[in-house]
Amino acid sequence: MDDPAAAALAAWRHLLQSLSAWPYPVLLKDAELRWVYANPAILDLFGLTGVDYAGRRDAELLGPEAAGICSVADHQSLARRALSEDVEHIGERSFRTFKVPLEEQGKIVGLLTLAPEISDLEAARAEADRYLACYQALTEINQLIIHDPAPQWLFRESCAILARHLGFRLMWIGWVRRAAGKIDITAHFPAAPGLEVADIHVALDPDQPEGRGPAAQAVRTEQTVIIDDVASRPDLDHWQPYYQRFGIRSVAAFPIRQKGQVVAVLATYAATADYFSASVVRLLEEGAGDIGFALERHDELQQLAHRALYDGLTELPNRVLFQDRIQQAIVAGARKEEILAVGFLDMDDFKEVNDRFGHGAGDSLLREWAERLRRVLREGDTVARLGGDEFGLLLRAEGMASFWPVVARVQGALSGNLRLPDGSELDVSCSLGIAFSPRDGDDAETLMRHADLALYEAKRRGKGVVQIFAEVLEKERRGLQSLRARLAPALARGEIRLVFQPVVELPTGELRGFEALSRWRDENGQAIDPEHFMAAVESRLPLAMAFSEYVLRQALSAWPQLAAMGHDGYLAVNICAVAFLSDGFLPRLQALLAEYPDARRHLLIEVTETALLRDIPLARSIIGALEGQGIRVSLDDFGSGYASLRYLQELPVSQIKLDAGFIRALLDNERNLAIVSGVITTARTLGIALVAEGVESEEHGEILQALGCFKAQGFFIGHPMALEEIPAWMTQWQAPKEWAFWAHHPWHVEHRKLFWAALAHRRWLQRLLSGQADPEEQAQALAPDGSHQCRFGQWYDSQAARLGDHPLYREIGALHERIHGAMIRFLHLGELNDTQRDAERAAILKLSQTLLHKLWSLTDSPPSPFGDDAL
To answer: Which three-class secondary structure string do you get for 283-352?
Structure first.
């Protein structure tokens, strides 16, 4: 092929075709932005499956809205001649797009686009995490708030805690009932037996005797009310008998606000006069504020919980709740011997409605279809919206024949002529894929995946098709059979090789272990994706046992070489799920260890979380047997499946490995930081060792240590390598000296936001000073209000209410403004010589170093982790 551009594109197309199973959209275009290759995921996204797209442009293939979005982003990426990242919204779905201009001999020849989808739940989860400030609490009340208690329980426990700590004679919290003109005492805590408040009536009207007390006054004035000596207040004559009865000399009442409105009152009663000093009042005002915050947070989390489980457009259950209901139905169905049908249905030609009339018309149509589905389903059935125009059905029956009348009603309700906004009619229909339980799966995840595969096949066959999963399953089986047939000879030929990835102690960089990973390069030299061949391995127990024994033997036989290199840590080996839970696993492992006795105490068995959750009692028994023989077990890829932290209490594993996806996302936003922090805290509380996978930068190591995780592996530390490559790595590897700080200075959880702000500032400075910032970030830095737009500025502004009176806070703000001013000057120095630029850079770094030290001083936890060369 004479044309270099055409040859380059052909090579890329060939490569991408070999990776066509990637689950996220992949698109290759030439320099004129004509389509060259599109994988099945992007064709399915745009409804182009089966369409001849080669040589055509977006405007010919996509709707005007999608074509416009893609065109702008494509031209911007080609103009920059560099990797670009953005978020694009296609219909109801959002994608994080990575666009890579392709060059050949200095000339742009094409554009490669990768677009993994952003989880719907991500947005719902991204909103709930704003309230994670509750983890900063150090008092018992704040510990209650962490668990989002119901208001009544919070009131009762808060009364008990405050009364115990401050020695009150009596304490109560009451709701303000303005319509009824009274305060309802809903929780109280007497410090001595026999003290009751059931007969106390508190009015809001000051003209009534019951309305002249401090609690009512606090509600009316919305201010704290203090009475230092009740005996000196004749205006409280109505309340004097109560004060005498309870032995009360001083009273304080504090309004509790929710979103600015007084909704409750906290009343405290002491046995001595002048009890309420300024410090006590401040404490109780903070307590009332915390309770008000908890009320707000409880209401908002209830709303978020609803939004996290229900679709905002149709108010139907979403994918998360749908999966939970399937799992519950499976358990209930097993007892009743019911058959379950899980259906995925998709509206045919829905894209035409969106393209012609916009998403508003499409949304109206989705709401109409949701209502029709509600009407035709039976009591006990479930309909859910799974995303876009895809709905889910959960049907129950005692026999297969009972499902088909319901399926017919669903098809009838969503088929026929539909009048469109312009008066025209569209013949609509729906395609449906169905999987049955227990025949096609005995867990929700499997049934949903099989129903989705059936729907895909139904859409491929045409419109209005109902596809049962069994036919699709047969095709999937043929693919697995092909891999299984190749695997046995591959094991015999020794094509499966092990590579070893180091695990280190982060503060010192000291080597702690290796993870042995399987790699397959077939007889033709082609690398087989581990995810694909492991699916084939786990589909048959005999193959899984043979494969696991092969891998274990290779790993154990490598131990003498590792020991000769000076390694005395552990060697982790991944074991297939079905093999681990089988009867023959323990005897075969013992036989292998008899051949390699020196490796026994170093062996660590790694099993994925989903494997252990298949049968928790059996998994617990096997783990116990292994631990009894001195062989530890690690829970691998924690967080990648559906395990809950509570399972850690049920499984006696020695170690968990945080999934690499969690760790890579640590630097994306504070929400990810909070999630990982919670997992680490729980694991440490349970005494379980932690290893983080996916450490790909120096900052990953810093953050993990700050959170309390001190062992890790990842590409920044070392790639998976052959045995003969390990000595060179051991010679060259050295941990960054900044990592050593955290071994002696663990942070507190309340400093999370501050630490995140410092890292954000440091990364911002590094990108701008090194010229690696994108044009948008540079424009933001040059803006007059740039100091309020950057991440550090946003954090700083959010702390004004809490830290505004702190002198260091104001100094930090002034330094931040000076840094932005200096950065503007630096960015305009393009025409000056290097000496001047170096001088400006040094001045900015000095200002930033001062800012970081002062920032850390806010924590009262010296010394600062940000050394003089931290930038």
So the answer is: HHHHHHHHHHHHHHHHHHHHHHHHHHHECCCCCCECHHHHHHHHHHHHHHHHHHCCEEEEEEEEEECHHH
Q: What is the C-alpha to C-alpha distance for residues 188 and 173, in angstroms, rounded to an integer?
A: 6
Peptide bond just before 863 cis, omega within 30 deg: yes
Q: What are phi and psi of 225, to 5 degrees?
A: -120, 125
Distance CA 671, CA 126 (A): 7
- Model pLDDT, residue 752: 67
- For residues 826 and 837, give the distance between their C-alpha atoms in angstroms, rounded to a whole number: 7
- The CA distances from residue 191 to 4, 151, 254, 797, in Å, are 88, 22, 20, 43
Whether the per-residue pLDDT at 186 is higher than 80: the answer is yes
Region 469-478: what's the mean pLDDT? 65
Two tokens, residue 422: 């312009």
Rounded mean pLDDT of 322-339?
84
Give tens-digit pLDDT for 193-202.
555 666 678 8
**Quick one: how far is CA 470 from the chain centroid?**
34
Tokens of 88: 């694009």
Provide the token pair at 484. Answer: 């299984």
Using CB atoms within 10 Å of the CB of residue 415, give its burial: 0 to 12 exposed, 13 to 18 middle, 19+ buried.
middle
Helices (H) and strands (E) in the chain, counts: 34, 26
The backbone torsions φ and ψ at residue 63, rounded to the nearest 5 degrees and listed phi first, read: -70, 160
In angstroms, the CA 660 to CA 107 distance is 36
Distance between CA atoms of residues 816 and 366, nearest Å: 49
Cis before residue 438, ω within 30 degrees of 0? yes
List Cβ<8 Å contacts ≥24 apart for 181-187. Answer: 181/205, 183/215, 183/216, 183/219, 183/265, 186/152, 186/155, 187/152, 187/155, 187/156, 187/158, 187/159
CA 177 to chain CA centroid, nearest Å: 40
Bridge-partner residues for 634, per DSSP? 606, 655
Q: pLDDT (tens digit, 9 = 90+) per residue, 487-543? A: 889 898 999 999 999 999 999 999 999 999 999 988 888 888 887 788 788 878 888
CA dihedral for 508, 509, 514, 518, sign (positive or negative): positive
| Whole-number Å distance between alpha carbons of 140 and 134 | 12
Three-class DSSP category at 376: helix
Distant-in-sequence, close-in-space partners of 180: CB < 8 Å, separation ≥ 6 = none
How many whole angstroms separate alpha carbon 176 and alpha carbon 204? Answer: 9
First vs last Cα of the chain: how many Å apart?
49
Judge whether 655 and 690 are in contact, CB under 8 Å: yes
Separation in Å, CA 289 to CA 173, 254, 282, 425: 13, 9, 10, 58
Quote the pTM value: 0.47
DSSP string, 112-138: EEE-PBPPHHHHHHHHHGGGGGGGG--
Residue entry with tokens 């409804």 = 47
Q: How far is it, in rounded angstroms, from Cα 843 to Cα 752?
A: 28
Q: Where are the extended beta strands (E) located within 154-284?
A: 170-177, 182-188, 202-203, 225-227, 250-258, 261-270
Residue 618 contacts residue 581 (beta carbons within 8 Å): yes
Between 420-424, 475-479, 637-641, the lowest mean confidence (pLDDT) is in 637-641
Tokens of 558: 């490598």
DSSP symbol at 630:
T
Which amino acid, one-letter code, is at 247? G
Contact indicator for 82, 73 with CB cutoff of 8 Å: no
pLDDT digits 0-9 by tens, 165-183 = 767 788 889 999 998 899 8
| pLDDT the model gives residue 191 | 46
Using left for φ > 0, alpha for ψ between -120 and 50, and beta otherwise, residue 514 falls in beta
Q: Name the least confident of 133-142, 159-168, 290-299.
A: 133-142
